[in-house]
Amino acid sequence: MKYNTILFDLDGTLTDSRPGITKSAVYALESFGFTDLNPDELNFFIGPPLLDTFMQHYGFKEEKAHKAIAKFRERYNVTGVFENSAYEGIHEELRKLKEAGMTLAIATSKPHDIMLRVIERYELAPFFTAVEGSKVDDTGYRKSQILKEVFEDLHTTDLSKVLMVGDRFHDIEAANDCGIDSMGVLYGYGSREELESYHATYITENVSGLAKEILTCE
User: Fold this and answer.
1) Residues 94, 200 share a domain
2) Catalytic residue among 9, 11, 16, 167
3) Per-chain mean pLDDT for the chain
4) What is the pLDDT of residues 65-79, one digit of tens each?
5) Domain end: 64, 82, 100, which one?
6) Which residues span the domain enclosing 40?
7) Distances from the Cα of 189 to the Cαs of 31, 48, 49, 103, 186, in angstroms?
8) The domain that contains 157 carries what CATH number?
9) Model confidence pLDDT, tens digit, residues 177-194
10) Is 40 marked active-site?
């Protein structure tokens, strides 16, 4: 097998977190006077650090973006975190990878404490040897930093044996920055064009068959 260590993003890769994140984004933006917001049009909040999203999409200065993040968390940390679900079939795919001898880890931009609540709630934690999220909050913590923390946790020395699996450009970008291969998944929140533009090594469409795709990479 080409890889022995698989790093997974969380939102849009292991769980469908869209409802909680987009509704919490609406809550935050409404506090700044935005109206007529449609949660279905706010998928760009899923994945990247919130600081980047508020600044890049709404032109917020850093101080204002931090205030928006605080409003977001008012709702998300209480309600939104569990407006979420594990993708149907993902447990079976993870089980197949473990049975094949793969070491599995999570690398997410979601705050570490929130990530732990999610993976425990949706019975994902037992599959993973290492899990890392943003420290304190996700206000600008680089995804590549998180991948490097996973490498340290696992005492990884041969990066050619590591694959990053995620659904958005920042997952692929972080893999590129760290010198590892990547697999973009289309069942999440990114598009094929997005993943191809950041040069994902592989792209796959469905949860079903994900383990086979990983195990047969060439």
Assistant:
1) yes
2) 9
3) 95
4) 999 999 999 999 999
5) 82
6) 18-82
7) 26, 11, 15, 25, 7
8) 3.40.50.1000
9) 999 999 999 999 999 999
10) no
